[in-house]
Amino acid sequence: MNYDLPYPSTRSPVLGRNVVATSQPLAAQAGLQMLQQGGTAADAAIAAAMVLTVVEPTGCGVGSDAFALVWDGQGLHGLNASGRAPAAWTPDYFAAKGGIPALGWDAVTVPGVVSGWIALHDAHGCLPLETIAAPAIRYARGGFAVSPVIATLWANGARRLKDQPGFAAEFMPGGAAPKAGQVVRRPALAATLEDIVATRGESFYRGALAQKIVDHAQAHGGAMTLADLDAHRADWVAPMSQRFRGAAVQEIPPNGQGLATLIALGLLDGLPFEAQGVDSVETTHLMIEATKLALADADRFIADVDAMEFDPAALLEPAYLAARRALIDPHSAGLPGHGAPRPGGTVYLTVADAEGRMVSFIQSNYMGFGSGVVVDGTGISLQNRGAGFNVTAGHPNCVAPGKRPFHTIIPGFATTADGSAPLMSFGVMGGPMQAQGHLQMAVRVLAYGQNPQAAADAPRWRVVEGRQVAVESTFPPELVAGLRALGHDIIIESPDAVFGFGGAQLIVVGEEGYVAGSDPRKDGQAVAF
After folding, report:
1. Where are the beta strands (DSSP E) in 336-383?
2. Exposed e or buried b for every residue in 209-218, given b needs 16+ CB within 10 A?
3. Is 461 helix (H, G, I), strand (E, B) or coil?
4. Are strands 65-71 and 358-366 parallel, antiparallel or unpaired?
5. According to the model, what pLDDT value does residue 123 have?
6. d(CA 389, CA 445)
7. What is the CA radius of gyration of the chain?
């Protein structure tokens, strides 16, 4: 591993035998406390995730969805804790409403994150759930100081969502979004977390909290019913894998977009590029072109796996990848069609413990605060994953009762090529940036040997649509010029647009412990002992 730090940063990699990396310091410290008390990586991940619902509501909440990849010391397991559409949701239901909205109750699918916490704890935890939840409950009831980046996102969300049911009461204390450093208390959420712990999530799906959720939906024109909540289950799934430079990158199978990362890496694995620098025009161009092709496939084919037209593994078949790879021109920007993705709101965390267990975990509202809906008196803010559906007849992602929508959030992992040992747990937040960010992290660490902090620091790019590619303001001018010469329409985003490029957290397996990196674009932190 190369420990050089070639990009502007005030951070060095964090090394230790127990490591937590999250997007917010209080969450990282909560996870580390669990490890110090003898907990597993799963215990630490749940503790950090719970704290994030309190202190970073701009990206997640108790009404979010979640996914995880878990190395238990012997093998890798996938967890899909995303929710499904209410039974009333059909194309006709939304035709009568003028389409699927991005806000309000008609954007809310069944929230899955609570089921994900419980499933993860059941399978891989050892500490009492009361112990794990204690930091989150303490911050919710006793208060926490809002961190700077989150304060900015909070203000942005408040301007857009202040009129959504329950939003202002929960998220605008004194009638305004809190400023950086302001102490915020969320007592209703503290009580909700206590109820979740006491019932191991049953209250949320089949008890008192479920009734409050459904009553609020009915009062505000939503279709959610007790039967919809009762039918929800988190699913353990087999990860999908793609060989890349002697390793195997692992992702959750659809309904998430992780398959797009695997397609792009499969395309790149057949191309020689290491002779060029990691930040060269040649390498960056190839990554962009592979991403365009992968996103075109994702837009057309990825949906709830039960609704896909074929086994998603068909998109990783060597012959298929070879045919797609032939479309990449090393000297010119191509124009494969795909959708126009939008920025999102997500939190990602990763944990590794001294016994060799690792967790890659992600939970999300989707678009910032999500639907903007908060269930009265509970602190439960709800995602807007219904906006991930479409109403195109015959499309695999067309809305239907009990169906999971296309999901942007994806945890990442890398193992040895035979899957016998872990190499890296990683993720990149930010809606459509995620599959692209996974590709950039994998290339930097697995192909070029960069350390995780350097990979997190490096300026990133994001395919927008057509030949448009957005780049961070820190992108080298000579690289911008070189890409434009190849026909890319480069958009240099302003320094305050860093949220559009996500936030990365990575833990790499070192020779005698772990090496972690945490993204300076957010309030992230990696901690270890």
Report:
1. 345-352, 358-366, 374-375, 380-381
2. bbebbbebbe
3. strand
4. antiparallel
5. 98
6. 34
7. 21
Backbone angles phi, psi at 226, to 5 degrees: -60, -35
Catalytic residue among 346, 350, 378, 415: 346
Q: Is the dihedral of CA 148, 373, 233, 187 positive or negative?
A: positive
- 416 has catalytic annotation: no
Exposed/middle/buried for residue 469 (C-beta within 10 Å: 0-12, 13-18, 19+): buried
State how far the Cα of 382 lies from the Cα of 101, in Å rounded to an integer: 14
pLDDT averaged per 10 residues in sequence order, the chain, 529 residues: 87 95 96 98 98 96 98 97 98 93 97 98 98 98 95 94 97 96 98 98 98 98 97 97 97 95 97 94 98 92 90 92 93 69 68 97 94 98 96 94 94 97 94 92 98 96 94 95 98 81 94 93 86
Specify the amino acid at residue 163: D
The set of residues, in sequence order, having a beta carbon less than 8 Å from that of 10 and lying 6+ positions away, is 520
Q: Taking a C-beta distance cutoff of 8 angstroms, is the pair 64, 370 a contact?
A: yes
Question: Who contacts 447 (Cβ-Cβ below 8 Å, separation ≥6)?
Answer: 244, 245, 273, 274, 278
Selection from 156, 163, 155, 160 nearest residue 179 by Cα: 155
